[in-house]
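Researcher: We plan to redesign the surface later, but first we want a full-length starting point. Tokens attached.
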């Protein structure tokens, strides 16, 4: 009987000390990434985005040494409730990853849409067709 009491006390003590008493940290909202293909539209609630044009793609192609990394400039139409509200000119370069792009396409109290990458990346000796381009969007609620 004495051994049962000791074993039970040991188990109970172990269980009590095994509890984590650290405060619960706030969990960051998961990042939703969507693709917006050239000429197509994506809808989020009452907001629609349409990838209209690639104005410039001067990014340094793969397998080439460049002095300047270059940038890509695209046009995106923003519609709210079916009506065109604005046309955004988005410029992305390696430096733009260091800047805060939150809401560079659309921003409201409950929704933020940002373009953070444009693919495909240029390859030396190959011309990228405009219909192959797509924008990776970061959507935060």
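Model: Full-length starting sequence:
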């Amino acid at each position: 009987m004495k051994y049962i009491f000791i074993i039970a006390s040991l188990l109970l003590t172990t269980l009590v000390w095994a509890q984590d008493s650290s405060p619960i940290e706030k969990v960051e909202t998961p990042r939703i990434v969507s693709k917006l293909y050239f000429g197509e539209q994506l809808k989020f609630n009452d907001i629609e985005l349409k990838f209209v044009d690639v104005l410039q793609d001067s990014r340094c192609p793969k397998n080439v040494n460049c002095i300047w990394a270059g940038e890509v400039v695209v046009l995106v139409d923003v519609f709210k409730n079916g009506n065109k509200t604005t046309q955004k000119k988005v410029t992305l370069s390696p430096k733009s990853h260091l800047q805060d792009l939150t809401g560079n396409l659309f921003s409201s109290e409950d929704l933020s849409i940002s373009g953070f990458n444009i693919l495909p990346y240029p390859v030396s000796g190959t011309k990228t067709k405009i219909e192959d381009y797509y924008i990776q969007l970061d959507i935060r609620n």
